[in-house]
Amino acid sequence: MLKRPNTLKNSEQELRIFRVRALLAVLVVLTLACLLTGRLIYLQIVQHDMYSTRSENNRVRVEPLPPNRGLIYDRNGVLLAENRPTYNLTLVRERVDNLDETLALLVELLELPEEEIEAFNVRSRQRQRPFQPALLTSDLSEDQIARLAVNRHRLPGVEIEAQPLRFYPDAEIMAHALGYVGRINVEEMETLDAGRYAGTHFIGKTGIERFYEEELHGEAGLRKVETNARGRVLRELGRTDPVPGENLTLTLDKSLQMLAYELLDGRRGSIVAIAPATGEILAMVSTPGFDSNQFVTGIDVASYRGLQEDLDLPLFNRATRGHYPPGSTIKPFLALAGLVEGVITPDSTINDPGYYQLPNDSRRYRNWLRWGHGRVDMERSLAVSNNTYYYTLAHDLGIDNLHKQMSNFGFGQRVAHDVQGESGALMPSRDWKRGRFNQPWYPGETLSVGIGQGYWQVTPLQLASATATLANRGHWVKPRLARRIGDTPVPLDLPDTLDDIQLANDNWWNRVFSGMEKVISGTEGTARRTGVGLEYRMGGKSGTAQVFSLGQDQRYNADELAERLRDHALFIAFAPIENPKIAVSVIVENAGGGSTHAAHLARAMTDAWLLEDEAPDVEEVREVLEEDNANVEGN
């Protein structure tokens, strides 16, 4: 008989198994529930602010509103720097999914030339503040804008902004005086106020644009906008309008500036004109110039290399940074120094045999007129530009007194208020030479300084400023380029202005002025041809600065020299003598004698300012120059 298997259920065992399984299930469910709850708590409470902000940013965006840059006008209200509407391409890296793909697509759509692609990519990766747009390129064409608009769905984080762009109507003529704006670089970004410059891509780089950057820039605004998922603006939720920059009215006169530029006729040189009573710079030209508009949007590599390699140095501001020996233009200042120090009187005379010799020295320091001028007093020494008189005077003064007195006229130091990048040039001294060369000062070097040669160097702006102070009879007014900032006049009394020059006898000014008037109107004056037909009293002084030194018995012959080795031509002038309205300095590189080339340019400038209805004809001036260049006389 077979046994049947025990098929009865073990209820107790099954119950235990069920309970275990149920408990495990409950534990798993509870664990998952706790994890889910914990995650919800973390996201909703701990990370609430971050995700709330991110959510809001997906819908609401705050955009900076850059201010309009202040305009720049000349003294008569003629616009010198304006803002023209343009379209810029910007990129916010935080909103771009794949930067490399986006940049490649932009290069294709914009059809950028090969030489610009690298700079384009570098700008896209420059360090920026979070969510601040980086400027990729400016001044987009209509075709570029159209291609970008069609492909906008493929370009998240890329925007086309309509913004004013700086433009200079007379770029080459005004380039060195105004300067220019350019893209903000990484170093500037680190120092600029983040809030004030939000959305701003350009900043003053040189000249007036840089010196008055704070006033011209203004204050940035902002707007809050609602966007869709693709970042397109649906509506504006709020706005704080930007505050535009202050307009700037300069002391420059555009017509006088243009005349100076035309008179130089493309030659290397500079003309600076100042109103003595106010210190207002009426014209400040350096030639050759350059197109400053190229630098606003970013000059291409080839064009910039061309400017850098140009032998005429168009980027170099000769008016404020050019160093030139002043030549005989400094003789009126030395005459006053001799009077102040008691070395000479107005009637002191010397007998000029055509040279000067130091005691116990066989070397002859020659006058430009090799057979000499005979009996020479102070006024005649200025009229005929006698070197021997000033060799004697310099030796009697000594370098220490000479340095002190010339420093009173601003030589060897920065003299202007708002001329960015101005050089102090060099007024040599005993201490300077010891520090520079570790050598003593020699008497022969004093003689060279006495005729504006040797170590002495000036800038055209310095020379014009000293001439204005001379015309003011020693009263110092600091030169300046800004006349008004907004509606606020720039004051005449500016900080760090040099002390007035006091003379023991006020008639000494008259005697020096008389000698300077004879330079132009006297029968022996070195620039007497310049005074033909003069309708007002004018004082002047010619100068010739050597580019290289001649030997003891060598004679200067311009026809035998390469053009860049010829002497520089200089001239200073002010007029009218009884109430000076204008002081001028002219430097024309390698043009020969100052009594010919430079003197006629100075006369044309004073005519233009004083005879409003009789503006000089530039072509006539050039014809006179051609005639006089054949008969160079004096220095």
TrEMBL record:
GO biological process, one term: regulation of cell shape
Assigned GO CC terms: plasma membrane
Enzyme class: hydrolase
TM region(s), chain numbering: 20-42
Keywords: Carboxypeptidase, Cell inner membrane, Cell membrane, Cell shape, Cell wall biogenesis/degradation, Hydrolase, Membrane, Peptidoglycan synthesis, Protease, Transmembrane, Transmembrane helix
All residue ranges annotated as the Penicillin-binding protein transpeptidase domain in the record: 269-604
Active site residues of this protein: 328 (acyl-ester intermediate)
Listed name of the protein: Peptidoglycan D,D-transpeptidase MrdA
